[in-house]
């Protein structure tokens, strides 16, 4: 049945054995063997053959193609609707999670700013001749230096992110 279907579909497309062979990157004799039932294409070649002939592998193999009924279409559309609702819920949950992470980041930045402002760089009065205090003071000063410069950018970016996640879709 495969050999007859290949020949019938090839002829209906107006292709010669040579033209089909060129499209499939095989020799003409290979197509001839398929059509005469002397050999069959392997599974990967069957897929390529079906694509070149604008048909399905099932049709090439002679399996009846069942047209979907309206009941099948209704069931399929209901399943797709359920999947779409699940995806929408997942998307909303993801947006809410991102929003709360950004709000938390803003809160942490504000708390650290308040803590640093209330400390008023007290570590600058330490005795830096003591190596342990020197290291701790340097670390605190480096943290404060970087934080004061980077935190406003991160804070504003987080605020914009929160506003964007509240935007109506």
Task: Give a description of the structure.
- Helix 2 packs across helix 3 and helix 6 packs antiparallel against helix 7 (131-166).
- The chain has 2 domains: 2-60, 434 Repressor (Amino-terminal Domain), CATH 1.10.260.40; 70-166.
- The longest helix is centred in the middle third of the chain and has 50 residues, at 70-119.
- With 169 residues, it is mainly α.
- The model has no long low-confidence stretch (mean pLDDT 88).
- The protein has helices at residues 2-12, 17-24, 28-35, 43-52, 57-60, 70-119, 131-166.
- GO terms for molecular function: DNA binding.
Structural class: mainly alpha
Oligomeric state of this protein: single chain
Radius of gyration: 35 Å
The average pLDDT is: 88
Number of helices: 7
Considering DSSP H and I runs of 4 or more, what fraction of the residues is helical? Answer: over 70%
Counted up, domains total: 2
Shape: elongated
Largest beta-sheet details: none
Strand content: under 5%
Kindly report how far apart the N and C termini lie. 54 Å
In N-to-C order, the SSE pattern is HHHHHHH
Poorly predicted sequence stretches spanning 5 or more consecutive residues: none
Beta-strand segment tally: 0
InterPro entries: Cro/C1-type_HTH (IPR001387), Lambda_DNA-bd_dom_sf (IPR010982)
GO molecular function: DNA binding
Transmembrane segments: 100-126, 146-166
Domain HTH cro/C1-type: 6-60
